[in-house]
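Q: Second attempt. The first request was missing the SMILES, so the protein and flavin-adenine dinucleotide are both included now.
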Amino acid sequence: MRALLARFLQLMRALLSCLLQGEVFLLFEQTPFGVVFCGGGPAAIGPIIAAARTGRLDDLLNRGIALIEPGPIGPGGFAHHRIAANSLGGPFLECLDDLDGTPFAALRELPETRALRALADVHPPLSVVASFLARLGAVVSDLLQAHPRCRSVSSTVVGLRLAADTVHVATADGGRLHADRVVIASGGRPLSDFAGAEIVPGLSLAPHRAKVWHSEAFIDARRRAPAARGKVVIVGGSHSAWSVADLILSDVDELTVVHRSGIRLFYRGVEQARSDGYLFDPVRDVCPASGRVNRYGGLRGRAFELARAALGLAGPGPRPVRLVHVDGPESRPAAERAFADADLIVMANGFEAALPPISYADGTPLIAAVGPTGTVVTATGHLVDVRGNVHPNLLAYGLGAGLAPSAEVGGEPSYTRRADGVWLYQYDIGRIVLDDLLHTATTSGEIHA
Ligand SMILES: Cc1cc2nc3c(=O)[nH]c(=O)nc-3n(C[C@H](O)[C@H](O)[C@H](O)COP(=O)(O)OP(=O)(O)OC[C@H]3O[C@@H](n4cnc5c(N)ncnc54)[C@H](O)[C@@H]3O)c2cc1C
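A: Got both inputs this time. The predicted holo structure:
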């Protein structure tokens, strides 16, 4: 009895000392979480919604989930994008149809949902999408807070350290968490050295570096873009490239888009594409799963209209944008002349994952592999380092690290970039990541550079 009392007093003294030193958080965090999500944007909440859709929410939450996000959970970068969505409003709401009987069902009649529903058949401003996603994120946050083994943490991950079976997670407010797995879904940043990138062999932006800006500077309201005047060249053929074109077109004297893989337009099927006079490869540009033409790489909405007009498919009349297709050595001089004459060059070559610093147990940094289309991950989203090692307890996907198109994710064979998008995070990619987290699928070692 006396020994028990002594042990009790010892514990109380330890607790008091931790309280005095503000370390109660450290004590609390000794129990490892099953999964820590680093970031709480559209990609991170995708597998949680996928779990709710497929009746596996309890399985996931019972593993112990912590989600660390400094801002509101749900909208991620969309909250700051000043462009319209490349998808219609409808697909953002599709998840609600499958969430009957879950806490998400209550979102149906909220004003943010109604505002998005009114734009179901058009490309809504991303700010409207962000408001809806913030409501989805609030439900995720409530679910985590209500569960005894889960938490939502309002902070930023500042470091990850790999130990034998655990990942140590450090947050900006001094918190320390331990997890069996960490899902890094903290968005993207421009690919390093975008301003000196080689576009095709022998054609580089390096000599023009001083006037090169990334597309993100124009799209993201948190960044400062230069005034677009005079002659402007945009490099790339993606939604970002054409969204910048749309934003600056009325301010410039001449706008040229330099692209290397053709202008890819989205059509619901091959007949629609043919009747529009659009030239495409009936095998490589068509998604075998959906029959869509350029399902992932195709432009939609305003970007589609602008690019279609530039191709001359909108009928006679001035083409708003000059196109330079660099598909061989003979087309390089035209691109070089455009770069030399330009007052401003906008590079739209995409993103790599904005990973927090990661180290091994001995403090050696883990350097993630980055390919031309972003951070390298396996078909199930496991992070790959520069030595080619696949990390079983680190997953990364979302902007800058999307999974490559596959039989499971669908997509046209000619698409060489990453599959990302809110619908995919909640459906195909969400399911792949969720299966992996719940160990119902075998982790694939296949690597996508
Ligand atoms: C210009 C553009 C337009 C797009 N339009 C569409 C579209 O119309 N439809 C569509 O479906 N997809 C679209 N996408 C693709 C994709 O769906 C979005 O980029 C989406 O925002 C990606 O979600 P994410 O969670 O990966 O990244 P983000 O949206 O960037 O979210 C990352 C989150 O992580 C947090 N975070 C960052 N660092 C840390 C850290 N160290 N610790 C903790 N938290 C951190 C951030 O605060 C943020 O909330 C678009 C992409 C771009 C670039």
